[in-house]
Amino acid sequence: MNIFYFIDPSESAYPVLSVPSCDYRLRLLGLCNNFAYVVMLSAAHDILKRQESGNATNSATVAVDFQVGNSSNSSRYDCNPVSTAAVLLADILPTLVIKLCAPFVIHKLPYGFRVLFCAIMAATSFLLVSFSSAVWMSILGVIFASISSGLGELSFLSLTVFFSRDVLGGWGSGTGGAGVAGAFLYAGLTQVGLSPQTTLLIMLVVPVYCCLLLNNYTDHVIFPLNVTEDRTTGPLTFTEKLHIIKGLLKFVFPLGLVYFAEYFINQGLMELLYFPNSSLSHAEQYRWYQMLYQVGVLVSRSSLCCVKIRKLWALSLLQVVNAVVLLFAVGYQFLPSAWLVFVIVLYEGLLGGAAYVNTFYFISKETEDRQREFAMAAASVGDSLGIALAGLAAFPVHRYFCSL
């Protein structure tokens, strides 16, 4: 029995319902939405290594071995000439632009159209990176993944306000699941011998599945049958939106700081935390760092039903401590093995996921009904801003250590 029907999304306020099937759908769409973004970050080291290998051999072929050692580099850190932060910036800057601008105008587009567009962008990103023969083509593919993830995230966060706050747990769990699924599948398939190109082509199944999931959502947003329109309130004015943004700063700043610290670790330091005596190659160590980080994110983003943390600044400071410790670990190389780094990045993921899901839970709880849809979309800029700043900070750090 179909419990959904179509209504016009232009209205800004509806009664809130608790619908298990919506939680399930948001879980799936959360996984689809973040999958391409996570895979591109997991593949960052390989993407850059591939282009370096291609340039070194002056070969036009795409089927280059991504895992060749960086023999041309005399640095003790076995660095790529370009930091993985380059991939991070390509993966986050389009998202940041979308999140800064879209909340003011995006309500004019139906949710179904937005999400179908996101699925197409994700599929295109996999194809571009798989068949790329130059750095610019790979980066363009990453940009497409960023557009997909950014537009999808602010759309689904806005969509959650039409249901009970419990669905935030479903969305958070889905996005956390995307992290584990993307990082684990990429690391696992390449570990068993598949080339990164083949691995990315296999992963096309996820955005294709998302398109199938949305095959009848192209014109309208879906809500349960007993949702009725509330016409007692009008749309928010521009001045009201600016006032809401001012009130969100107490949430946006801690969230941005958490993500600045963790992505400074992920794309500025992880590549440099290389242990030559390990049984894992450099590329393999990097992939498993990313995977364990995503496991931590999944656990903490799924924890909202068990524990809620209002002190968001505490999570921010703990994440900053993580970044400082690992920065010194890169500089002084006092960590004995990759196994200790595995534990630290798992803990890093726990802090980041907890900050994300609790931030949006308390925004939903403390914002007035009429303002909630816009507030959820606008606050999503916090993590993207922190990630973008982390990518910029990672460049000079990478250059400094690789010059040693």
Automatic annotation (TrEMBL):
UniProt entry keywords in alphabetical sequence: Lysosome, Membrane, Transmembrane, Transmembrane helix, Transport
Domain of life: Eukaryota
SUPFAM superfamilies hit by this protein: MFS general substrate transporter
Membrane spanning residue stretches: 82-102, 114-147, 167-187, 199-217, 244-265, 312-332, 338-362, 374-395
Subcellular location: Endomembrane system; Lysosome membrane
Keyword check for Transmembrane helix: yes
Protein's GO biological process: lysosome organization; regulation of intracellular pH
Record bears the keyword Lipoprotein: no
Membrane topology: Multi-pass membrane protein
A Gene Ontology cellular-component term: endomembrane system
Family in the record: Belongs to the battenin family.
Protein name: Battenin
